[in-house]
Design brief:
alpha/beta; 4-stranded mixed beta sheet; 15 helices; elongated
Length: about 475
């Protein structure tokens, strides 16, 4: 178990809490240290050779009536923005130098997450607090009091009040006290957050300038601007279109969140947090030192590591299908099993959900979990034989929630299977003879199309009443009411 800090200041603690709750519980560490005993940054998160380094700075912009507003702004910008930008660049150089990182000032606890510095992508993120009220007072047209940002070639000199210029040749992301929670709430998976920052860096470095009135406005533009040719969100026009610069106007986010499209999608996304709960529960067991098995889920490949990669809209689709499979579990016989295959957002990766029903006496035997894990492995091997294109299979084994009395205990396995010799194929084929996973006459195949945004009258998802009421027991087997689990 790795002990981590929780942030020093109130705003640092807020940032740490957002990162832990939203997307990087096992992979985010507040206040890491350099080998000279000084802090590297306010929070460091590492996942798959992508590093997010956060710098949090709070300093209220003075309101002195006899002072020139430009002088007050310049002083605030130097202290809160410019100084942190230099610190961020220094932290990036330190990381790339290969010098060690520690969790404590005494340098006794090494940073536990490995990464390849030759392949590392670093996103430098400054959260600047203190200018919101002054910004709102300065202009009634400023909807939220957010800082305006422009990426261009600049030496970082003085700017007009509430407008920050960042050198496009070395991008630093600037958030403020208002839009930091918006960004981390809307992009609350590693995949979604990384994709946004990657695209922002691409746009900032490609165009002569990228200018917007607030980070939330850029986010709204990004989410609504989907390129069907490249299957990704973009900032600006399509990649092949030739433009010199991009300017995003005030109110893009304000207008977007008022649409039925946004409101309905947020409602539909509620069920996706069942997927997050599976991850968080296992991560907490790892933090507490109570996780069984031989997988170090924070430091290497694992089933949980693969599950974390799923973006929000895929988590919605996966959670819907998993909970539907829970509801469909057959009611006949004291012994029963059901296996469900689900594709991942990652290419050539899939999930196998194995549900078992067994009498209490059988489940209380000392080797029951071992037997369930063996059966899950056989089901994963059968899935590879059935779907030979797969290169990774994540197995999730549970007691059927319908009959488990609210007890939740999951088994997870990761089966790398890009190399699959004939003898391995034959081995699992032989083991599967007694179970016939993916070979019974009861096998059913469904094709569904999952979209990031769900209009209220989506043709593939007609409006219908929920099968589970908010006060009914949650079908995930947690023993809680549905509204407590996913409401």
């Amino acid at each position: 178990m790795n002990e981590k800090g929780s942030g020093v200041t109130a705003t640092e603690r807020l940032l740490a809490d957002f990162c832990e709750r939203s997307f990087l519980k096992l992979w985010s560490y507040p206040n890491p240290y350099k080998d000279d005993g000084h802090e590297l940054c306010d929070l460091l998160a590492v996942f798959n050779n992508t590093l997010f380094i956060f710098f949090d700075r709070e300093n209220a912009l003075s309101e002195v009536s006899d002072k020139d507003p430009q002088i007050l702004w310049d002083r605030w910008k130097r202290n809160v923005i410019d100084r942190q930008v230099r610190t961020a660049h220094g932290a990036e150089r330190y990381i790339f130098s290969g010098r060690p990182i520690f969790l404590d000032a005494k340098r006794e606890k090494p940073f536990p997450i490995p990464f390849d510095r030759d392949k590392a992508v670093i996103h430098k993120i400054i959260v600047a607090h203190g200018a919101k009220e002054a910004c709102e007072r300065a202009s009634p047209l400023n909807v939220y009091g957010s800082l305006a940002i422009t990426y261009m070639e600049t030496d970082g000199g003085p700017t007009h009040p509430f407008h920050v210029e960042i050198d496009k040749r070395n991008v630093v992301h600037i958030l403020d006290g208002h839009n930091m929670p918006i960004v981390l709430r809307e992009l609350d998976t590693v995949n979604d957050f990384k994709a946004y920052l990657d695209e922002k860096v691409r746009a900032a470095t490609t165009f002569d300038y990228l200018s917007y009135c607030g980070e939330e406005d850029l986010l709204g533009h990004y989410l609504l601007n989907y390129d069907t040719a490249t299957h990704r969100h973009v900032i600006g026009l399509k990649v092949e279109d030739k433009v010199n610069g991009i300017m995003i106007g005030e109110g893009e986010w304000h207008d977007f969140v008022e649409t039925d499209l946004y409101k309905n999608t947020k409602n539909e996304d509620r069920i996706s947090y069942f997927w997050d709960e599976l991850i968080q529960r296992t991560c907490q067991n790892s933090v507490d030192g109570t996780l069984g098995g031989n997988s170090d889920i924070a430091c290497g490949e694992s089933a949980i590591h693969e599950m974390v990669k799923e973006p929000r809209f895929m988590r919605r689709g996966l959670a819907e299908k998993m909970l539907a499979a829970v509801e469909r579990f057959p009611d006949n016989g004291p012994f029963a099993r059901q296996v469900t295959f689900l594709p991942s957002f990652e290419p050539n990766v899939g999930y196998v959900l194995l549900q078992l029903r067994a009498p209490d006496a059988f489940r209380s035997e000392p080797d029951y979990r071992e037997k369930r894990q063996t059966l899950l492995e056989i089901a994963c091997g059968a899935a590879k034989n059935k779907f030979p294109h797969l290169i990774k299979i994540i197995g999730i084994g549970i007691d059927a929630p319908k009959f488990s009395g609210g007890t939740v205990a999951e088994d997870f396995i990761l089966m790398p299977c890009e190399t699959w010799p004939e003898e391995t194929n034959a081995y699992y084929e032989e083991l599967n003879k007694d179970w016939n996973f993916f070979g019974t006459s009861a096998l059913r195949q469904f094709q569904d199309h999952v979209t990031q945004f769900v209009p209220p009258s989506h043709p593939d998802k007609p409006t219908k009443p929920n099968k589970v009421g908010r006060n009914d027991p949650c079908p995930c087997g947690s023993g809680k009411k549905y509204k407590k689990c996913h409401g």
